[in-house]
Design brief:
CATH topology: Aminopeptidase
Distance between the termini: 41 Å
Oligomer: single chain
Strand order of the largest sheet: 1-2-3-4-5-6-8-7
Number of helices: 7
CATH class: Alpha Beta
Order of helices and strands: EEHHHEEEHEHEEHH
Largest sheet: 8 strands, mixed
CATH architecture: 3-Layer(aba) Sandwich
Bound molecules: coenzyme A
Strand content: 25-35%
């Protein structure tokens, strides 16, 4: 099942399909923001980090063609600001997907990401018919935790050593939203001030647990 990657916009924030011809600009931005992104970057447990941006765009587009992903470029006032990927789309009785994102350091703090996440989530719920969206965040990532808090993604729990990030398996706090929770849409609910204030609050026991990571395996 192939899905169309739409162009979505709200004010100065635009989500548009990633293209192979974005590879040079993306590579430059990823290199310029190396220090800003490294701590949160997904890595492979099997191979060193790849900086082949063309190959990674090709990979994203392949997933999209098979109906498993929506790879977006995030633009702000017409400039390439970052990426948002809807990935791991599963259909049928799960009808669920995961969202990942980054913006360049010079674009941080303009609510670009919450706007982009709201646009993508509303598209997935109300155009694609997905039922559940998930965002998983390292406990140390205060800026990203603010994104789910702003939009009222609901805290679901701590997953130990869940995703390979910056060279090791890292704990993640996971947040979810199902379409019935936002009949008016995520973007509109946020804009109207209707986000429940404590939806994204992490349980005290999980905060405590995350402060004590599981031991890493001896190599
Ligand atoms: C997490 C991230 C995507 C947030 O994007 P954003 O578009 O800046 O989102 P917001 O504007 O809503 O900012 C969220 C919070 O970041 C913090 N923030 C703002 N400007 C910042 C800056 N220049 N540097 C660091 N943190 C900043 C603030 O706490 C802000 O919350 P506030 O609006 O209540 O003050 C962005 O910081 C980023 O790309 N970080 C590196 C990659 C990353 O962490 N990806 C997510 C992995 S789960």
């Amino acid at each position: 099942m192939s899905i169309v990657i739409p162009t979505l916009r709200e004010g100065p924030v635009v989500l548009r399909p990633v293209r192979l011809r974005d590879s040079r600009a993306l590579e430059r931005d990823l290199m310029e923001n190396r220090g800003w992104l490294r701590k949160w970057e997904a890595t492979s447990p099997y191979a060193p980090m790849s900086f082949d941006t063309r190959a990674s765009i090709r990979n994203l587009l392949t997933h999209s063609r098979s109906g498993h992903g929506l790879p977006f470029i995030v633009e702000y006032n017409g400039k390439l600001a970052g990426q948002l990927n809807v990935s791991s789309i599963t259909w049928g009785s799960l009808s669920s997907a995961t969202i990942g994102y980054w913006v360049g350091e010079r674009f941080a703090g303009h609510s670009i990401t919450p706007t982009a996440v709201a646009l993508a989530t509303d598209y997935c719920f109300f155009q694609l018919g997905l039922h559940r969206m998930e965002i998983c965040i390292r406990p140390e990532n205060a800026a990203s935790l603010r994104v789910v808090e702003k939009l009222g993604f609901r805290y679901e729990g701590l997953r130990r050593r869940y995703i390979h990030i910056n060279g090791d398996w890292r704990d993640h706090f996971c947040f979810g939203l199902v379409s019935e929770e936002v009949p008016q849409g995520v973007l509109r609910r946020w804009q109207k001030g209707g986000v429940p204030t404590d939806a994204a609050r992490v349980l005290a026991a999980d905060l405590e647990a995350a402060a004590h990571p599981l031991p890493t395996a001896k190599r």
